[in-house]
Amino acid sequence: MKPYRVSLIGCDASTRFRMELTEEGLIVLKRLEALSKATSKYPCMPKLEVEEYRADIPEEDYLSENT
Length: 67
Fold this sequence. Notes:
Largest sheet: 3 strands, antiparallel
Shape: flat
Number of helices: 2
Low-confidence stretches: none
Number of strands: 3
Mean pLDDT: 87
Order of helices and strands: EEHEH
Radius of gyration: 12 Å
Distance between the termini: 28 Å
């Protein structure tokens, strides 16, 4: 298992958290990520984003990256 940052990003607010995922879990979330982006009807609809967690980036910088 590896740590990932999972984000739900919208225009008004974002929710982000660290999550340990197996390879199979990552595949499922990556499919959901692609579907959330493909089916969003307008830019402010929340979208899922999954990326590898990087411990070398301070948490406050990491969380403000996409807001």
